[in-house]
Structures are given as C-alpha cells and as structure tokens.
Amino acid sequence: MTAKDQLTFCDPVSRFPDITPPKQHQPEPGLDAELEPQTDRGEDSYRGTGRLEGRKALITGADSGIGAAVAIAFAREGADVALSYLPAEEEDAQHIKKVIEETGRTAVLLPGDLSDKEFCTQVVEDAVRELGGLDALVNNAGKQIALEDIEELDDEQWTTTYEVNIHAIFRITKAALKHLPAGSTIVNSTSIQAYEPSPTLVDYASTKAAINNFTKGLAQQVAPKGIRVNAVAPGPIWTPLQVSDGQPKEALPEFGKSTPLGRAGQPTELAPAYVFLTSPESSYVLGETLNVNGGMPTP
Ligand code: NAD
Ligand code: MG
C-alpha cells in the first residue's frame, strides 16, 4: 500500500487507498505478514526531522500495527528502539528490525509474554542493558477478543485481558521509573473504547478506561521528577488485532466506515501523535489523551 508522503499537503479522506477488508481470520495474536490488505506502517512514507535524536525507547507490541509504526517513526526521528512482542510474532518483529536498521538505528528484539509478571520486569531490565539506558516508554501491547454475550466471557479471558492491557502497564512502568532520567516520557495506548464501549468488548473497553485514568493520575505523581505521562486513544485502525477475533468477522468489510472521515485509519497515521508526546516539544503536555480516531467526538 502506498501512502502520500507524510508531509505532503493532501485530503485526509483520500490520503490512503479505500479498503474494504475481506472476511478473514488469524489465530491470536495475528500477523501483519498475513493481513489482507497489508497495512501502512510508514516504511515508505514516514520522514523524521530529528525530534528524538539519541533517545532510547522501549515499545511493547512493537512488531505490528500501531506499535510497529511508532517504532519506525521513532527510529526515523533518531531513537534506538527495543521491541517487545510475543514469540509467535517473530516474523513481523524481524521485518521491523530490518526497517529500523536500514534507518541507521539500533533495534533490540525482546520476545516474551507480558501476562507473566516476572517478564514485565525482565523486559525493562533487558532494554536498559541493551540500549545503555532508557528515556522513553510506550506501553502499547493489547489484547482484544470480541464476544457477543457475557455468558461466553470466561474468567480466563477476563483475567488475561486485564493482565496484558493494564497490569502489565503498571508493572513495566514501575520497573522503568527506576531508570528514567528527568526529561523521559511514557505514552500509553488507550482507545475510543474507553468512552464508547462496544457491547462485544466489555473486558477490553474497561481496561482502556483504566489506562486513561492511570495515565492522568500517574502523570501528576511523577511530574515533579520531570517525567511526562500521556496517552494516545486510537479509533478504528487496520491492524492484525482486528482479524484475530478483535471484531466479529462479519464486521470487517465495514471496519472504520462509520467515522466522519469514512474510512479506517492506517497505523502510520498514529505515529506522529506518539512522536509529539515523546519529543521535548510537548514539554508542557502531561496527563493528556490525544485522540486519533477519524473525527469521532470524545469527552
Ligand atoms: P497489533 O495486534 O498489531 O498489536 C498488539 C500487540 O500487542 C501485538 O503485536 C502483541 O505483540 C502485543 N501483545 C498482545 N498480547 C501480548 C502478550 N501477552 N505479551 C506481549 N505482547 C502482547 O494491534 P494494534 O491495533 O496495533 O494494537 C496496539 C494497541 O492499540 C493496543 O493496545 C490496542 O488496544 C490499541 N488500539 C487499537 C485500535 C485499533 O483499531 N487497531 C484501536 C484502539 C486502540
Ligand atoms: Mg503483532
């Protein structure tokens, strides 16, 4: 998929080719490599302007979708990046590593399961060791499984969704704060679901409301240390999350078409929001949730 250059004047309605994804299914966690159509993670379009020169970033869920687009953008802006992802996503992670290295930056691969409490601490320690420090954290990994009826939602799914989406953010953030110097940033991936929960996503959507709230509370707590915490709330973005039971299969062809822009977003359209909140240019922005959702009204 070819996008118009990130910095070229264009109509947001038609910046990307219209997509009507065919019904498809992948086992969780889903691969970008097998998604139809392919997503735009900015490989051919994201142009850096040195806004993260010399930064050292850990990004979770960095192999695919939004996290992959953020990893590419961070590298193009001058950062070295540690990528956290599940072992089953090695193919996607290797692709992003290659793109980052072609940019002339370092990519550190850290596969493992964030529903494991010990791994949440280990991934931070490994990133610090491999990058030679840490000054940017992006908590982006997420689990989303749609179910029609709460009767089908078992305790295991409820608990794992909470483990990955919010408990891991608490654990990783706590481990990272020991290492983050003044000037560092944390950006959490939340969702439009935090305010407009779909009836099929009661577990997922409630974790996203928790992320928004955690972001605003923690931002105040660590502000005096010179650490800024913010969130990005995506709307419907075309990623592997959606085809690995994130949406009912029947809903895929219409995915994103009810937004004011009339289309789903591409992962690369999220990247500038994460770059902005990580870069020193947003030094007076704390506890903010930046909505990137094609125009859906938010509180
Ligand atoms: P994605 O599938 O590309 O990324 C999600 C990533 O989460 C996976 O790549 C995987 O590496 C990671 N992950 C899941 N379970 C994990 C586990 N147990 N251990 C370690 N890593 C695990 O999908 P995406 O849409 O790019 O999602 C990124 C974030 O954006 C998520 O937090 C998601 O909730 C959020 N979000 C997405 C949308 C959307 O429409 N795609 C909308 C709002 C919010
Ligand atoms: Mg993935």
Q: How do the SSEs run, as a string of H and E?
A: EHEHEHEHEHEHE
Q: Indicate the radius of gyration in whole angstroms.
A: 18 Å
Q: What order do the strands of the largest sheet run in, or round the barrel if closed?
A: 3-2-1-4-5-6-7
Round the mean pLDDT to the nearest integer and report it: 97
| Top-tier CATH class | Alpha Beta
| CATH fold name | Rossmann fold
Tell me the strand percentage band. Answer: 5-15%
The biggest sheet amounts to:
7 strands, parallel
Helical element count? Answer: 6
Shape descriptor: globular
In this entry the ligands are:
nicotinamide-adenine-dinucleotide, magnesium ion
* Low-confidence region ranges: none
Q: In CATH terms, what is the architecture? A: 3-Layer(aba) Sandwich
Protein name: Oxidoreductase
GO molecular function: oxidoreductase activity, acting on CH-OH group of donors
Organism: Brachybacterium muris UCD-AY4
Keywords: Oxidoreductase
Describe the overall structure.
The chain is of the alpha/beta class and about 300 residues long. It has one domain: NAD(P)-binding Rossmann-like Domain (Rossmann fold, 3-Layer(aba) Sandwich), CATH 3.40.50.720. It is built from six helices and seven strands; from the N terminus they run βαβαβαβαβαβαβ. Strands 3-2-1-4-5-6-7 form a seven-stranded parallel sheet, with helices on both faces. The mean pLDDT is about 95. Nicotinamide-adenine-dinucleotide (NAD) binds near residues 67, 85, 140 and 237.
